[in-house]
Amino acid sequence: MGFGRLALAVVAAGAVVTLLVIGGRALIGPLGAAERTPVSSPTAGPTAASTAGSTAGATAQAPTVRIECLAETCPLVTVRVPGGDVLQYREMSRGEEVSYFEPELDVVLSDAGTVRVTENGEPRPQGEHGAREAFTVRAPG
């Protein structure tokens, strides 16, 4: 009987560890996806692809929303698809930029004065320092 109980305990512990790993990956997967959003560095020079895109003119699609952090640390910036996935829910660092191309996005800025926002290629008016802003952006067309 002692060996049977030990084997059962080992199987139960293995099942718990497996569930923890699967749950952890499920939670980290969506958070990691937001961090893999195309980010460009303000100090990076033009690449061959961006040079070719600029000569193509209006054929390149502007992102639905682009957010650039201007302060040392920009408090919580949230971007999500209405009624769907949360694309970003985190602080940003100076010079960090994120762009999203979804047709409609809800954006919440904890401190609107610390970021520069571009909607469909057009700059959005700068918010007040310390002011919270929430708005929806829709892609043209």
Structure report:
- This is DUF4115 domain-containing protein.
- It comes from Nonomuraea antimicrobica.
- Residues 34-57, 119-141 are annotated as: Disordered.
- This protein has 141 residues and is of the alpha+beta class.
- The protein has a domain at 48-138.
- The protein is 30% helix and 31% strand.
- The chain has 2 helices and 8 strands.
- A hairpin with a 5-residue loop joins β2 (73-80) and β3.
- It starts with a helix and ends with a strand.
- 17% of the residues are buried.
Give the topology, please.
Layout: H1 2-35, H2 48-56, E1 65-69, E2 73-80, E3 86-93, E4 97-100, E5 104-109, E6 115-119, E7 122-123, E8 133-138
Antiparallel strand pairs: 1-4, 1-6, 2-3, 2-5, 5-8, 6-7
Region (Disordered): 34-57, 119-141
Biased composition (Low complexity): 37-57
Protein name: DUF4115 domain-containing protein
Provide tags for this entry:
single chain, 4-stranded antiparallel sheet, elongated, DUF4115 domain-containing protein
Helix content class: 25-40%
Side-by-side strand order of the widest sheet: 4-1-6-7
In what range is the share of β-strand residues?
25-35%
Shape: elongated
How would you summarize this macromolecular structure in one to three sentences?
By secondary structure, this protein is an alpha+beta fold.
